[in-house]
Amino acid sequence: SHARARDDARRVARAPPHDARELLLVQAVFRHGDRTPIAGLGAGLEDLEETWRRLLPSAADEERLRRLARVRSEMEATCVPRGAGGWEGRLTTRGATQMRAFGREIIREWLIAQEFLSNDFARAVAKGEVKVRSTAASRCVASAANALAGGWPDAWENGGGGSPLIIEVREKERETMFPKPGSACDRLSEVFRGAMASNDEKFTHDETLARLRESIETAREKKAGLLEVWDPLQCRINHDLPLPRGVTKDQVRSLLTMMEDRHFATFTSPLANGIMGTQLLREICEEMGEHGGKVKLSLYAGHDSTIMALFSALGTLGSTLTTWPPTGSSLIFETWRMKDGSVGVRAVYNGEPMALTPKSRERDGLTSYADFKAYVKTRVPEDYVAACKL
């Protein structure tokens, strides 16, 4: 998890482009909701394991979601929660509420209200109006299902009302929503190797945090770095849970700043330039070109790194995106038929339109699809495998 998302955060732009005639396609790339820590502090360190378990959705709620949307049976084993205890890294009830609010805003209050999508979930699924992708992380799969529940609450409350929507989950080697798909890119692997060590010593100048780190290493019998110390503390703050004795919110904020610095240094690395996020950007651009087909809404349930990698691919990380995406953040791509018959596209990050290319319209970020497609071609390597070589 990360700095807490605002519960009243807006995701949809306040107005469509003034010269748009009709909406053709919406693609929403979003970060999962609040979750439990990837790993706890360890036995004897006020681990709060039972507290975290109580903050997980009930088995009945999870089964009800599965009747609404689920992954293919052959991928279910890949999407189980990681960690020995089965509670680590999972979407909490708070995170589920965030994701239902997200779905309510973009699906029910926007797309259904404008009669762009069917009001009946079973009909929308049968007509192929909605497509959903997720990484194999259980919190992302659950976030996608909860977004659908927020968009079609009647279907969720009544158990789906038909065949569940199948959420696409790819094998790790093909998962372009990860910044380094399958760890098969040598250049990106080198970038992340360096990133994992950065700032790991700086935070231990604080005696309290240094002692906490040593205790975590002793309890878990493995090395602990910045991430392993910060993450369980930040998750507690996000869920209004007490911090360990002697640790303050100011100290956690300092760790958050170090993590943010690490992320931006990683994703803006010269080694990552021209590779990071480019395969997902290409897929999104190609899907835009298929407008007019069955699919009207395409959801991509991912991570902070998914969004940051897309900004990196667009060449706007550090300029348009200057802060780490909070949980529940979204980058929404709209494809429009314009009044003059042309096709225009627009990107909206957390409710604010943004420029996609240097030629994007300053007023509302609108870009001709032809211009966006040409720009993407300049950003995506023709031979990804060759570009990944050191």
Main sheet properties: 9 strands, mixed
The proportion of strand residues reads 5-15%
**How many distinct beta strands?**
9
The outline comes out as globular
Radius of gyration: 21 Å
User: How many H/I helical runs?
Assistant: 14
- Helix/strand-derived category reads alpha/beta
What series of H and E elements makes up the topology? Answer: EHHEHHEHHEHHHHHEHEEEEHH
- Identify low-pLDDT runs: none
What does this structure look like?
There is one protein chain. The chain is globular, with a radius of gyration of 21 Å. Helix 7 (186-197) runs antiparallel to helix 10 (249-267) and helix 11 packs antiparallel against helix 13 (369-379). The chain has 14 helices and nine strands. It is 40% helix and 13% strand. With 390 residues, it is α/β, with parallel strands linked by helices. Strands 1, 2, 3, 4, 5, 6, 7, 8 and 9 form a nine-stranded mixed sheet that branches. The two termini are 32 Å apart.
Secondary-structure blueprint of this entry?
Elements: E1 20-31, H1 49-54, H2 59-68, E2 69-71, H3 93-112, H4 121-126, E3 130-134, H5 138-151, H6 153-157, E4 165-169, H7 186-197, H8 207-220, H9 226-238, H10 249-267, H11 278-288, E5 297-302, H12 304-314, E6 330-338, E7 343-349, E8 352-354, E9 367-368, H13 369-379, H14 384-387
Parallel strand pairs: 1-5, 2-4, 3-4, 3-5
Antiparallel strand pairs: 1-6, 6-7, 7-8, 7-9
What labels would you give this structure?
390 residues, 40% helix, single chain, alpha/beta
